[in-house]
Amino acid sequence: MLLVPVDELGLSIAIMPLENWGLQITDRFYSFYSEAISNSLIMLPETLGLFLLGLYAGKKDIFRRAKELDPKLKKWQIIMFILTLPMWFIMVYFFMNNQPYTPFSLMGITMISGKTLFIFYIVTLMRLLQKEKWQTLLRPFQYVGRMALTNYISHTIVTLLVFGLLFKNDYLAPLWVGPLFCISFYTLQIFISRWWLSHYQYGPLEYIWRLGTYGKMMPLKKKSKVS
To answer: Contact, 30 vs 22, CB < 8 A?
Structure first.
């Protein structure tokens, strides 16, 4: 039996028995059918609104007109930053002065700041990508983006597996564990996605999705270049 030391992080005594992992799977399923489905219905108007906003931006060809729209983008960038900053301070203050902290305590501010922050992120990226230096620096992320569904599902499965095996209770893990794991695994996904897309046209789950969308078989493997 493979043993790992027990410490204040809540590490499992034994890795081989998958009791903790199984309990987390069960808990996730319970949370899904008891809370997630109803919450998804409640959030449907917001989710649909965001999809329509993205569709509108695409129809207006906003992302291809970044250079033309740069003065307006700069204005929106500043406005969204100014709106987000005070809400961020409120959430940090509330977190530091209320234990235990739950996001539901500040649901309104959390939801509004999420919208202002994502607009700030997108506008900032649109402005940065006008510069060749930033295009080069950010290019590796395109591989992960082209396999977004595959990477999202694989990240979820691997995270649940790793944390279920290593921790008796992942709530006991210190905050630095999450960012360290995410950065490390995301970096790995960049290399894997780049390798995969050098041989295939789509990610595995993206290919299955396209089959369901178009209802017909299509080539997955890239054609070899004729020299």
So the answer is: no
Report CA 217 to chain centroid distance, whole Å: 29
Handedness of CA 95, 96, 97, 101 (dihedral sign): positive
Check: CB of residue 193 under 8 Å from CB of residue 147.
Answer: yes
Asked, for residue 122, whether it belongs to a domain, the answer is no
- In which domain, by residue range, is 206 found? 1-42+139-227
Asked if residue 19 is part of any domain, the answer here is yes
Q: What is the pLDDT of residues 80-111, one digit of tens each?
A: 999 999 999 998 888 888 766 666 678 888 88
| Angstrom distances, CA of residue 108 to CA of 24, 42, 113 | 29, 14, 9
Q: How many domains does the chain have?
A: 1
Residue 42: per-residue pLDDT = 76
The SS3 assignment for 46 reads helix
Q: Are 205 and 152 in contact (CB under 8 A)?
A: no
pTM flag (> 0.90): no
